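Students often ask why we bother encoding 3D structure as a string. The short answer is that it lets us treat folding as translation between two languages. Here is a chain of 276 residues written in the first language.
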Amino acid sequence: MKSNNKQLSKEYFFPLFCIFIGIVFFLSDTLGILNFVRSGISFVMQPVAYEGNRIGGEGKEYLETFVRLNEFRKEYNELSIDIYQKEVENSFFILLKEENESLKRQISLGGSNSAYVMAKVLSGGDYEIIRINKGESSGIAVGDVVVWGNMFVGIVTRVDREGSLVRLPSSNSSNLEVVIVKGGIEEVRILDNFNALSKGVVKGSLDGIRIENMSMEADLKNGDVVIVNDTKVGEYLVLGYLVGLSENPAATSRSGYVSTIVDYDKLITVFVRTDH
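And here it is in the second language, the structure alphabet:
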């Protein structure tokens, strides 16, 4: 019986001892006796707690990002579609603006007694031809002249129902009679009354549009205006400026090159004269 009491007292001793120690620490902390211990523990544990909170926050953000990944992807797709729509609208506006400016130019500079079909350039980049989106169904035929305002673009050489090929003056197979005049483009825009300095012939080549057979007696200078005056064209149209004029006094004629005013690579809207 004694041994059982001794064993029971040992079992209660440790819990009672812990309660006693707890009461002592509580009273000591209340009275401020253990402030130095609290300060030491805080000094050691505060950086640990801060770093733990930081790592935990980053982990939380990463998990939130991962969880919301589908939401982010949906927002990205919506933004991409919105940007694409804005680009389409902007491109449409640019095309309308270009078409409007081309129409104004054609009305002010084109022949008022001629019939024209407005067409869009489908492909370019080739120094010999461009393709346009109008053909037989629009009344276009082989031999029709393509212009931009009073600027010569080319001659239609092939036609199908819904498209045409236009031969540019830079083509190897292009030969046109021209005249060279003084003054700027605006000064010769009516192209009715002007004094030709010389006649000439322009031919397409790989190195540019060559102009030959110009008079040695004419007072020609680089920058003079080259105007198409050919029966195939049927009207005076501006081709470009005279450049690279030859200066050989022993030659029987002068030659050079033509710098075109129209940039064929950037053409969007052109006009085909159909009253042939």
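Translate back mentally: The radius of gyration is 44 Å. Keep this in mind for the problem set.
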